[in-house]
Amino acid sequence: MASVIVVEDEAGLGRGLRDALATAGHHAEWVPNAEQGLKWIRRHRPDLAILDVRLPGMTGLELLTELADDPDRPASIVITAYGDIGTAVKAIKLGAEEFLTKPVDLHALLAMVERTEGRQRSKRALAFHRKEAQSKYGLHRIIGRCEAVQRATKLVRRIAELGDTVVQEPPNILITGDTGTGKDLLARAFHVEGARAAGPFVHVNCAALPEALVESELFGHAKGAFTDARSAKIGLFELANDGTLYLDELGQVPIHVQAKLLTAIETRAIRPVGSVEERPARVQIIAAMNQPVQQSIDDGTFREDLFHRLRVIHAHLPPLRERGSDVELLIDHFMEMHCARLKVPRKTLTADAAAFLHAYHWPGNIRELHHWLESAVLQSGDVIHLRHLPMPLDQPAGVKITGGAKPTLDVDWSAGPIMLEEIERQLLSDALARAGGNLTKAAKMLGLTRYTMRYRAAKHGLG
Would you say the pTM of this structure is higher than 0.85? Predict the structure, then answer.
């Protein structure tokens, strides 16, 4: 039930409205003028204010004006004299939810209160879910000081600043980068920080859609459109209406569907499979690709016109190995996150473990670092040693470098053929880890010149 303040100078009417609301289960109070009403509202923060427009001293419209900039102002219903529609319109423009003319119909008023209370509940729920979404996917979750990440976050802020001016025609956004670099998180940040945060966020993994059903999944289909279409189906475009459609791994969409996708983006309308009826597509499109875009265009697997249509806003996220000191920031972040989740004290890394994490080339990018530290926190005590870190998948079978002050290389010939190049890579990786990523120190440990070390590290993707 709602908390209601009645502001009415006619004592009989004011008390009558208060008692009727109380009988209906609401908590209601009555005050005879707007000045007292304003003080009561600011002190008690009711859900709803019922205001007479014509009041002695401050009018009901002036009271609405006083509350206009208050983010916690109550919803309001105004009571006007019969036929005074102009005043009612002014009240609605000032934020009133509904209006009622005198003499007051109690049944109509109680119905208005119920409707208004329902809308307020929906607004509170929406605000709560938006706050939750921002805490999980907001801009603060994107961690990094490197230039590319800073550019990406500036783009998110810029789109957020545009606010309602881009609600009707939001700009298309293209995010590129290797798998695991944080494209999904950036896409969600664009959504929750933008003007469409109240709408749905529909994540489509295009690589997981069966090729024969991609068109139907995206655009829907009419009943009888094909053999198994026993009923009409709403597509993902329509599910995302008034929100964001995130097309992940867009490069996996067949070329013939890309043509229809281009039309949908340009016309902001879709046509379900087997239908002649067009339907509005009120969506913001965010697309992500992990393949080199130009190569896909040259290979004929991705339409160049679709690429240009999508990259109104283009954000590129580089591999973790190219983000410099961001590795250290992310190590601290994931360490704190996993320790807090598991309710264990913050753990520390040994020098060897820290050096290895900083020097490793991270083929799986941020996602790989995230899971490595989760595994290490689960398996270690107060201190995380090198042995607690997961073994890189690209370490050659049968080859193991034992840690310690005097590391040794153990070779198990029974494990099968061992490629000399893989042994070299493992030695280079271990030396870099022990040298804290310092090429000169690592080169000295291996008896190489700095130039040779840099060349060999680059050859193996370790530089």
Answer: no
